[in-house]
Amino acid sequence: MAAELVEAKNMVMSFHVSDLQMLLGYVSLSKSGLKPELMAQALQLVQFDCSPEVFKKIKALNETRFAKKGPEAVASAPGNLPVQIMSKSEVCLNSRDLHPGVKFVQVVLRICYTDISSPQEDQYPPNIAVKVNHNYCSVPGYYPSNKPGVKPKRPCRPINLTNLMYLSSVSNRVTVTWQLWQELLSRPVPLKHPELCKTLVKEKLRLDPDSEIATTGVRVSLIYPLVKMCLTVPCRAETCAPLQCFDAVFYLQMNEKKPTWMCPVCDKAAQYDQRIIDGLLSKILTECKDSDEIEFLVDGSWRPIKPGPDVVDLTLDSSSSSSSSSKEEERPPQKRLCYEKELLSAC
């Protein structure tokens, strides 16, 4: 019974719209809709209610599709040719057809749910790579987006593997690989020793006799500016000149969707294989938890930069009070009113 179900599914999946409508009409089901909807109904019928009558109907429809036509007229070849010309019927008999009458087979790779009750959409994992018999297959890439803050979209559709398949008895090998940022982060990354990082700081702040400006210190933020969160794994590329580091976790998450591998600090190429973990800054993160910024000094040491007290601007109040007092000082004194003295007669 299981073999008949598999055979029935294979035959139904090769049906056209007219065949699907005839099959659904045979069991009094709705024949309206697009081909994916009709295909889903037919496959559901085969899976849950494949009676012997339904199986015979499917087989009859399949045989009708590949019914042999009348004999075709074959041109007679001259008998004096040194080569043997095979007729069309002989060529068809010698061909390796998977199903009678099927001349072409297309092999596609779908990455979706296996639920056949409804049409499923393909969804690619990040950084997917498909390899068929030692040859990489082309996979649709991302569509670039010019709008800021909009994630690039990727058209996910079935991947055609037909051109890379071996049409012989040799087995074909299909390999699908993808990488997530957790797997990349779990790989060993070279940790630069704190003393080497300290030497690098000294070289950056070394006094240049040809320069008139001397740098006594450089500030480094402990907050990743893109997400406004504290650094967890301070990282930078070996080719990066600034001492400022970026967070390795968020860096891999950004390149998971759109792999650009550009340094978010200096905007230069920072490949995955070139990244290193700053041992000195990792040590500072464990010791300095009250500050969001530090300053490296000339001797390679560092000091935390704590935010100063809040300054209240009293300029407006003082100016208003001073202006009011100055107006009072400039105002002339009031004159005294003089009243005439009158003698009142006694009654």
TrEMBL record:
Database matches in InterPro entries: PINIT (IPR023321), PINIT_sf (IPR038654), SAP_dom_sf (IPR036361), Znf_MIZ (IPR004181), Znf_RING/FYVE/PHD (IPR013083)
Biological process terms in GO annotation: protein sumoylation; regulation of transcription by RNA polymerase II
Signal peptide (UniProt feature, chain positions): none
Region entry Disordered, spans: 306-335
Pathway stated in the Swiss-Prot or TrEMBL entry: Protein modification; protein sumoylation
Identification of the protein by name: E3 SUMO-protein ligase PIAS4
Pfam family, one: zf-MIZ
Ranges for domain PINIT: 35-200
Residue ranges annotated for the SP-RING-type domain, each copy included: 209-294
Sequence ranges of Basic and acidic residues compositional bias: 326-335
A GO CC term assigned to this protein in UniProt: chromatin
Organism of provenance: Leptobrachium leishanense
Keywords: Metal-binding, Transferase, Ubl conjugation pathway, Zinc, Zinc-finger
Family, similarity comment: Belongs to the PIAS family.
UniProt GO molecular function: SUMO ligase activity; transcription coregulator activity; zinc ion binding
UniProt KW Metal-binding keyword: yes
